[in-house]
Every structure is written in structure tokens, then in C-alpha cells.
Amino acid sequence: xxxxxxxxxxxxxxxxxxxxxxxxxxxxxxxxxxxxxxxxxxxxxxxxxxxxxxxxxxxxxxxxxxxxxxxxxxxxxxxxxxxxxxxxxxxxxxxxxxxxxxxxxxxxxxxxxxxxxxxxxxxxxxxxxxxxxxxxxxxxxxxxxxxxxxxxxxxxxxxxxxxxxxxxxxxxxxxxxxxxxxxxxxxxxxxxxxxxxxxxxxxxxxxxxxxxxxxxxxxxxxxxxxxxxxxxxxxxxxxxxxxxxxxxxxxxxxxxxxxxxxxxxxxxxxxxxxxxxxxxxxxxxxxxxxxxxxxxxxxxxxxxxxxxxxxxxxxxxxxxxxxxxxxxxxxxxxxxxxxxxxxxxxxxxxxxxxxxxxxxxxxxxxxxxxxxxxxxxxxxxxxxxxxxxxxxxxxxxxxxxxxxxxxxxxxxxxxxxxxxxxxxxxxxxxxxxxxxxxxxxxxxxxxxxxxxxxxxxxxxxxxxxxxxxxxxxxxxxxxxxxxxxxxxxxxxxxxxxxxxxxxxxxxxxxxxxxxxxxxxxxxxxxxxxxxxxxxxxxxxxxxxxxxxxxxxxxxxxxxxxxxxxxxxxxxxxxxxxxxxxxxxxxxxxxxxxxxxxxxxxxxxxxxxxxxxxxxxxxxxxxxxxxxxxxxxxxxxxxxxxxxxxxxxxxxxxxxxxxxxxxxxxxxxxxxxxxxxxxxxxxxxxxxxxxxxxxxxxxxxxxxxxxxxxxxxxxxxxxxxxxxxxxxxxxxxxxxxxxxxxxxxxxxxxxxxxxxxxxxxxxxxxxxxxxxxxxxxxxxxxxxxxxxxxxxxxxxxxxxxxxxxxxxxxxxxxxxxxxxxxxxxxxxxxxxxxxxxxxxxxxxxxxxxxxxxxxxxxxxxxxxxxxxxxxxxxxxxxxxxxxxxxxxxxxxxxxxxxxxxxxxxxxxxxxxxxxxxxxxxxxxxxxxxxxxxxxxxxxxxxxxxxxxxxxxxxxxxxxxxxxxxxx
Length: 966
What we know:
Layout: H1 11-28, E1 34-44, E2 50-51, E3 61-67, H2 68-73, E4 78-82, E5 98-102, E6 106-111, E7 114-120, E8 127-132, E9 136-141, E10 144-150, E11 159-160, E12 168-173, E13 181-182, H3 184-210, H4 227-242, H5 249-262, H6 281-290, H7 296-322, H8 331-346, H9 353-373, H10 377-390, H11 401-405, H12 407-415, H13 422-434, H14 437-440, H15 446-459, H16 469-475, H17 484-506, H18 513-529, H19 545-558, H20 561-564, H21 568-586, E14 609-610, E15 613-614, H22 615-639, H23 654-679, H24 686-694, E16 705-708, E17 727-731, E18 734-740, E19 743-746, E20 750-751, H25 754-757, E21 763-768, E22 776-782, E23 787-792, E24 801-805, E25 813-820, E26 827-829, E27 836-838, H26 839-842, E28 848-851, E29 863-864, E30 877-880, H27 901-905, E31 907-916, E32 926-932, E33 942-948
Parallel strand pairs: 28-29, 28-30
Antiparallel strand pairs: 1-12, 1-13, 1-33, 2-11, 3-8, 3-12, 4-5, 5-6, 6-7, 8-9, 9-10, 14-15, 16-27, 16-31, 17-18, 18-26, 19-25, 20-25, 21-24, 21-26, 22-23, 22-25, 30-32, 31-32
Pfam family, one: Arabino_trans_C
InterPro entries: Arabino_trans_C, Arabino_trans_central, Arabino_trans_N, EmbABC_dom1
Membrane topology: Multi-pass membrane protein
């Protein structure tokens, strides 16, 4: 007799069991142990000065020792040990380290700027030690405590320096709390949680099938390409080649490319390189992507592919859900315009906005599918997607908007499912949402993540919720923050949302009221969720691209003539709103950040004009006049008791007017960049970068830069051989002959270099010191017989700067003329023709360099300097933005948690001006040589790995000028 068959696992029970197991795993995961390295440095005075630039700046534990004999033999005020340089180069930041100073028969001890006291040395042989940790700093003689200070007065450490050559030792452990790796235990918990979640989802799928709730997922012929798909794909392809970078592409590129050297996703430019957790998983994907190639076009390809996915979701799934109007022939083209309106100003680049836009629209579709079919699996998948979107960026919390907008009908659907116990359903849905934790802290401990949040909060850099209005204020600025494309997308979408809400109350015109209402409400909730973003850049509006494009299409239907003409008041109100919004949009400038603004034509630095009249003014006057005439006509008729006359048939509805505005704005953005790409193809543009990469030259801006390594070598000699330049001007650390900007002086004539005569090279003069308003500095160009042109030149900020001028065509000679009051303190170098070296020769591909964040994206062939094992590297080179950029100070400022504060204390910067091919007058950026102020040893650490609990923490990192001492 056969044994009875074992019944298959009941999917209802399986859903509850797997769901509960997945929830427990998600709760335990952040507390799970991680692998943390321990790096210990040892140094003796015999090693000489050493570089040990810590990050965070304080060690976890420090022990310093000196023999009493060494201290007694030291002359008064001799430095026995200092963990920061006693003297630093001009412009270097300040840290407060450990300082042991001999005073004859005693030793004075200072730590973190706190005077701990003076210790009298006993007679005979003895050892003085200083031991410092987050709880206490103690001074001991032969192991007996003689001085102590409770609290955290650990010193900052940039290295080890001493005036003696023996008898002093230092040992310290670096702070590696952020450099953790996933442990086998944590990996196992994560695997159990993910497998349990998959089991719960599979059980939901079986339950849905048993309930007979199988509904086709994709529309028929969804795969068939259309002409509009080709147009959108072409636009995305063109924009991928030519589109401008975003304000943070360099910032994110620096973080992404530093992951390999740092071992984790840390903010390599501020906040003590604190982890980006819990919002960092897309950085890991970009890091893996960059391992194939860090070139500019390759790194911009994921956002372009996300754009294609967003278009597919919008055109194939969202629009059919919003109503039968989607079958009209013009709707796909309207959707393409709406998509492009949002994508062009916001979508391309490394920022998370494309990911959030796709995630939120996918969640909306998941919720709508649950409402349409009653199935539970789409709801659970939507919660998984919402969690993943939230783990992208703080504003990603807008992914919960579809659940809030559909709250009541969703609860009604869930209550109607009697085939699954409520507890099991709750367990599965909570497990789905909690799955985000695996993306938030995959290799970080809970303590590390909380410390990172604390550091970011303490240092600041963000804005509170109640300052969200700043985002909209910036949208109306005449900068790239309020660029015309950004205004068009946001403001026209808001107007469309108002039209949709009006239409749903009065006329449907093929719009499905439920999905449309939920879409608009979801958009408004999402805009409120933007306030959670700590910064208020208008770039964040790109998170709304999916919602915004769909609402624009709905608005085109709601604001068209058919639903509005039966309602004259609404028609005129729509025209009035269109006039105001259109004028505000067209008052914007077509501007882009950083290199996107290079070669901008004059018409892009102004609002659009016709016959020198702003188009915004024309729109406002014409539209206002039409509205005013209609209102006056109706008022006259009402006063006379006559019936109101119908609207003129020629009067356009708001929708086509807005469509014209959007087409014009889109054309202005794209065609302007096309113009720049074509007319300046011999210089650097994003288009030339992409084409060069495709041709096998992937080094970006570096391909088109040359460096002036020795300014003195290019000084133009006097025609008569007479010595000129009685003073020396400091040009990037190199002395160049020059004159004082004081009194009246004219240098002898010098022959122009042939390349200066043909316009290939500029005439360069460098100023230094402080120029006064009355100082006159002139370049006089001659033709051998006299002065051809006398050109005033002026310094730019900062004060030390290169003034570059092209010689007039007829000139063959040049001289410098000064007409200034006596006693001036400024200097000007003699005119020179820069001797240039291609940057690729000076820094071959693979060279390590410190890449400042505004330019890091554009130098893919240079390797970012790492921040390994609680330290910062000591770079040989720094690549910086133009001299007028003041945005890089955070990387070198202690109060910002700048990662390269300690290395900057150890070096002197030598500036090397760079010159851009095709535009020699432009300052494209700066190259700095970092030269140690003294020969420095580079001790190697002893590294061991330990397994620590997720809540383990060694004190906390202290940010100078913010966190209190002690």
C-alpha cells in the first residue's frame, strides 16, 4: 500500500511564513556584523618627517613616547613631536595636533588646541608617554599618570614631525569605521531575507492565479515600433552626444570613481568622506559601469537608456490607463513633446533623477494594476520598487505618492480579498517595503550609517523643509537654475494639472477620472516630497519627469478647444493663465552649468527676442489684450442686458498655445547646443568629447588642453636686447620678470611670437598683489613704426591672474605701459607667449591626481586619489576648475569635513595655467603641482581585519569648528 501523498504547501500559509521571515531578516540586517579593518601606523624620529594624513582627522587611539634624556637635552622650545606641520604654506588650512615641546627639564603637552599642562621630568632615566582615545587623554611617566583630560581631546594628525632624530616614537590607529565590508553572517541574513521575499511573492502569484485573476500584463502589439518611437529615440541619441552636463556630474563621477580606492561609497569631497548610505546603491551600479570605461559618453549612457525605458512606460502603459483619448492619432506625438520637455533639461547625466522618475512611474503602474485587476502581486512589487526608489535619494520618498493618492480604493481592494489572512497579507507587504534595507546598508554597519548621518547633519550644507520655497525662487532666477527649459517643464505642468482637475469636475473628453485624478494628486504629493531633499536645486524637479510628462498629456486634452468652448469663462481663464505662464517661461535664459555654458551665443544670454523686443513682453501684451477685450466686451453686454456673444472661432485654446511655447523652448535648447557643437568642433564640447571617444580618444577635456609649465620661458625678449623687468612676479611659484604697477613706466618693445601674430596664441600678462581703482595697466601693440592699439587690461578675481589678449592683425610688437599712482602694491609680469605642453604628455593616462568636483567628470583618463584605511593620499597633482570658481573650498576646509585638509597642510601649490585648443583666451581650468614643503617619509600601516557588531562604534569623528572639544 502506497503512503498517502503529502499535501503541497498551502500558498496562503507559505505567504505568511515567508513574509514573516523576510521581515525578521530585514530588521536584523542592519545590526548584523561587518568586517572592519584596523590600520596601525608606527613612526620613530629616526624616520624623519612623515606624512600620515588622517581622515577623519583624529586617530581612534594614539600613543606617543619620548625618553626623558631626549627631552632634557632638547633646547628650550624645541619640538619633540608634532602631528601637524609647525609651518605650512600660504593658503593651507589649519588643524590642531599633538605638540610636545621641550622646555629644559620639563615637557609642555598640547592636544587639539588644548594646553594639557607642563610635566616636570624626574631625575634619572624615564619615559614620558601620551595616550589619547575618545574618552581620555593622559600623560604618563613610566606608566604613572601625571596629567589627564577627560573627554575627547584627540589630536588631529597630518603626519609626524620632530626637531630631534632619536628618542621619540608614535603609534596610532586610524578611524576606519566607514570602510567596512559585508561579513559572511550579514551576507547570509541578506540571502535569507531576499529568498524569503521571493518565496512570498511566488506565493502571492499562486494565490492570484487560484482566484482567477490572470489579466494580460502588456497591451497588444506593445512591441511594434512606431514613427514617434523613432523620433524619441533619435532625440535621446542626439542629446546623449551633445547635451550639457548637470551641476553635479563631476561630483558624482568623483565619488563613483573613488569607490575602488576607498572601498565604499563615500563622499570624497566633504563630510569626512562619510558614506552616502542610506542613499547610495545607484553609485555602486555606476562604479561597476565605470570599470568598463569612465569616459564621458559611456557614463551618460545609463541615463539615456533610462530615458528610453521611461518613454516606453509612458507611451505603452501609462497613457492607455488614463483613458480612451490615448487612441487619438495626435496623442503619441503630444506625449513625445511632453517627454522631451522634461527630459532635455533634467534627464541626462549621472544624477539620480532619471532613476527616480522611472521608479515613481513604475510604482504608479503597479498600484493601478492592483486597482484594475484586484491582484496582490503588483502591489507587493510596487512596494519593492518604492523601497528601491526611496533608497536612491531623500526625494525618492515620493515613490510612496501612488499609494497615498490611491489610499481609499486600494484599501477597499485589499479588504475584498478574503482568500488571504490579513496577518499574512500585512507580513508580505511589510517585507516588500522593508526590502529597501538591503540596498541602504549592504556593507555598512548601522553605527557607521548613523555616524555618517550625524556628520552630514553637523557639517550642514542643506536647507530645512520650510525653505522649500527657495527651489521655486531659484526657478525664477536668470541663471541656469531658472533656465528656460526648466521653467517650461515645471510651470506648464502645474498649469496642466490645474486644467485636468477642472476638467474632471465638468467634462471628461475621454479621460478616465480615477487614474487621472490619482496621477495629478500623485504629482502634487511628489512635489511636496521634494521638500525632503536637503538641497533646493531646481535640478531635483527631474524626479517628476515621469509624472510630469503624463500630466502634460492630460493637460493637452483638458485644455483643448472641445472641453473648453462650452465654458467661456473657463476658456478665458485658461487663456489668461496661459499668457502669464508663457510669459514667465519665455523670460528665462537658455543657460547651462559649467562647460555647458562654453561658447554660448549671445542670444542665449538673453531672454528670447524679436526685433530686440522680448518675446515674453509680446506674449504678455498680446495675450493680455485678447483677454482684456473679451472681458470688456462681456462686461458691456452684461451692463446692457444683452446676451453674451460666443467666443470667436479663430481664438486658439490654451493647449495649442502652450504646445507652441514648448516646441519653441525645446527647439531653442537643442538647436543652440547643436550650433555650438558644429561651430566649435575644433575645441571642447560634449559633442566633440563623444565623437573623440568613439574614435578611440577617450580622455575628454584633457585631450584639448595644453599646460604652461614654465611661464618664465615664454617672456618676450626686448627688441634692442636691453634688460627689462626689474622686479620678479610670482606666477604659480615661478619668478617671472615684471614691473610695479606704480608711477609711469613703459617697457621696451618686444617682438610678438609668430603664433601670436596669427591669433593662435594670446599675449599673456600675470598680475599679483592688490590693484587700486586708479591703477592703469595697458598693452600697447605696435607695427614697428608706432602704436597700433593701446588696450587697457584689468585684473580679474582672484588677484593673481593671467590676463590673455589676442594681438590685433596689424601688430608685430608689444609692450607694457603703466600709468598709476606712486606707492602701488601690485606687480605685472612682462608680456609672454606661453610655451605649452600637451596635458596628455604631462599627465599620461592612468596618472593619479586630485580631481576637484566641478571638473572630475571631464578627465576620465586620470585616476582619482584614494582615501584608504582612514587616511588621505598625498597627491602630486591637482586638477581644478577655472580661477574664478570658488566652489571647491569644501574639499580643503576643516569645518566642511574636507577629505584633503591634512594633505593640503603638507604641500605648497604651484599653479600651471592651462590653454584650451580653439579658444586660447578662455580659462578652462587649472593644473596644480603639489610639492611637499619638506621631504616626507610615507609609513606603511599594519592592517588586520576584525568582525564587529553592527552597533559597534569607536567614539565619534570630530569635525573642527563644529564638534566641541572634550
